[in-house]
Structures are given as structure tokens and as C-alpha cells.
Design goal:
homodimer; alpha/beta; 7-stranded parallel beta sheet; 8 helices; 7 strands
């Protein structure tokens, strides 16, 4: 099928830069997360809550991916955190070369953790390795408990899964046991963190897990 | 840039089938909507509410597009409405040839209205003409008022815009005047319908608009 071949070419180019990104990050001891979610699932709010939880422990920088606009980068910069905005034009995901450009703008020597906020999309970003240590995905309660059935790829690619907006569970018909079983079927290793990012609820266990990951990566390198 | 060329090839193939789809629909006097939204914005609920509002007036059929699963087609069939499920495998949008196959399964002679539920995505489906009369998009309140800034293309491609889950406005920080101004800047012609699909609230004006569109198309053909 033509489509598959075409995708492959783009993937190859992206992978080449992703490898270079990985080497850059290793050389400077930087941990990088590729954060994936639907539009409006709360990626920026989760990043902001994570910054608040971890900014005393780590130097953090953010790479913002969007089709258009720089509203998210502005929100992050208001917190005094370095942020690079990538506008993809039309593309529904970030690619290795885009991240490569962003890494060259950031002060990697003084960075411990980079969070990439990928373009809002449960499909396209899943297949693209950007040089990150882990992919993490967010689903929000309003999106519904059936999403693992419809978008299995992203739930399988994630090293950890965040369920956001749990403060709105009372107003949505979200079947938590069914959701948890679907996650377990697709990705039994991934921890599930239930949070309300804008209220900074439940961010502790997510931040603790992330801290462990960062320290394990540093220990492995040393 | 390679990416653009590759996209173009796929678009060309899709357009060829889209033209054939258009001819098929015209030959049978069928109106077709391409319905676009994020995962979990309420496409299926909106379709169900629309079926309930219009099933006495029109013979309706649904084409369900998903990466995987057939949960949505099952929900529609339970209402006694013909539904065809398309699983795209990995692709983040439907293409003309996929719709062509679906149209050949449906009884077009006895159909007035087809609603295509495209894959949940605010980016990829925007550029693909499938032979439809109109594209309609849904945004849901939990996704946030800033989405027109981030995904302008889909807001511009839509002939009408539905804002769903307005019953949850009290629990989200959604700036309605800002949202309405953003819509107006991008697409001043498109009507905005505020609904709560699962509660079947606000569906009247949307259904009335849709009825007008269908009848205008029929009148133009006659």
C-alpha cells in the first residue's frame, strides 16, 4: 500500500535526527519526555503542575508543539521556565528534525528534564521516536472510558498513563473499572496516575514516579 | 519539502474516489456530512441525537471511521439505523476510497442523509475531501476555548460548528465570548450551535439548519 511506504520515508528521516537528539541528551545528562494527548486533555496544565512539583529538584525546559499559535509557550514562559515553540504548519505530529532544532536553542548543559508537548492527537505522534526517554500519555475524563478500544496504539506506546480531570468524574458517565481493565489489557506495565492538573491534585505520585525515572536514567549513565 | 509531495499523492488518489462518491450521491439524491472532532468530543452522541431529531423526516445511514474497534457502529445499529464501520488500521483520517467502499455497501436508493463520523482528530481529516456536501465540526467545552487558535484549519473548513457538552460549562473555565470571537475571526459565515448531545439539549436549531441544507441541496438537484 502506497501510504505505508510514504510514511516510512518520513519516519526514516525523523529517526535519523532522533538518534542525534538522543546523543545530544546523553552527552548532557538530560531526560526527555514525549507527552501525548488529545487536544484539550490538559497537556499544558499537567506540564505546569509538574513544573511546580519538580522545579526545586530539577532544571526543566519545555518544547511546545502546535499546528499554529504560541499560547502554550507563553503560559510556560510566564512561569520563568525556558520554552521553545514549534509550529508544524499543518503536520499532526512533531518529527526528529523539529526537536533537533529546539534542542540546539536550549541550554542543555543546565537542563535536567525536557518535556515535549506534542501536537494534540491520539494517532500520528505515536509512531515517531524523537529521541525521548519515555512517551507518556494523558487521557481526560470527558473524552470517555472507551478510548483505549479506539486508539490502542498510543495506550501501548506509553510508559505511563495519566488520567486527567478526575475532578469532573461526577458530571461524566465514565466507567472507571472498565477503563482500568482496558488499560490493563493493552499495557499491563504502565502505571496509571489519576490527577486534576488545574487543581494540582494527585500530582504527587506522578512526580514521584517521574523523579525515579530521571534518577534511574542518571544512575545508568554514571 | 518531501512531506508535502507525499501528502499530495495520497490526496490525489483520495480526490479521485471522492469525485466518484459525489456522483454516486448525486445520482441517488443523498446528502452527506463529514463530521470532524477530537476523540471524545461527542461525535457519536451528537449523531445519535441527530438521528432521534431527524429519523421521522429522513432515511439516515452512518459511516463510522475508527483506527480500531466497532463500538460506535454497534451503538448506531442498536438504534435500528444502518451503519458501516471502517477501521483505518493506523491512519488518522478517512480517505475517498474508504468511503467509496462504504457507499457501495449502503442502500443509497433508500437513503437521504449519510453522516460520516471521521477518526477523532482535529488535524488530518481537514484536508481530505470525501465527496461530502459539507464538513461539520464539533468542539466540546472540556477541550477549552483556545482550540481555534491552535487548530485554525478545521474551524475554517467547517460549514457549521457545534459546541458540545455545554451542560458542563459550570465546571470548566471556558471563556465563551473569547471563543465566539475566535470563531468569528476564522469563519464568520459558520453558524455555531451550542448543544449537550447526551441530554439532547440544543439539538433543535442544529437539526433545523441541517434540514434546510438537505432540502436546499435537493431543490438544487431537482
Amino acid at each position: 500500500m502506497a501510504h505505508i511506504d510514504l510514511d516510512k520515508k518520513i519516519l526514516d528521516k525523523s529517526e535519523r535526527f532522533a538518534q542525534e537528539n538522543r546523543e545530544l541528551l546523553d552527552a548532557h545528562g538530560v531526560f526527555m519526555i514525549d507527552l501525548l494527548a488529545s487536544p484539550g486533555a490538559g497537556k499544558t496544565s499537567t506540564i505546569k503542575a509538574t513544573i511546580n512539583a519538580l522545579r526545586e529538584s530539577f532544571n526543566i525546559a519545555i518544547i511546545e508543539g502546535d499546528i499554529a499559535s504560541n499560547v502554550d509557550a507563553v503560559r510556560i514562559k510566564e512561569m520563568g521556565i525556558p520554552a521553545v515553540q514549534i509550529n508544524t504548519g499543518g503536520s499532526c505530529h512533531l518529527e526528529g528534525d523539529m526537536i533537533n532544532k529546539a534542542l540546539k536553542v536550549l541550554d542543555l548543559e543546565n537542563t535536567d528534564l525536557i518535556i515535549i508537548e506534542n501536537v494534540g492527537n491520539l494517532v500520528c505522534p505515536t509512531d515517531f521516536y524523537l529521541g525521548e526517554d519515555v512517551k507518556v500519555m494523558i487521557l481526560s475524563v470527558p473524552e470517555g472510558d472507551d478510548k483505549p478500544l479506539k486508539y490502542p496504539g498510543i495506550f501501548q506506546a506509553a510508559k505511563a498513563i495519566i488520567l486527567n480531570k478526575v475532578d469532573t468524574l461526577p458530571v461524566f458517565d465514565f466507567d472507571m473499572p472498565a477503563f482500568e481493565e482496558r488499560i490493563l489489557n493493552l499495557n499491563p506495565q504502565a502505571p496509571l496516575f489519576k490527577i486534576a492538573a488545574t487543581k494540582e491534585n494527585g500530582v504527587d505520585s506522578w512526580s514521584a514516579w517521574l523523579t525515579e525515572q530521571i534518577e534511574a536514567a542518571k544512575a545508568k549513565q554514571a
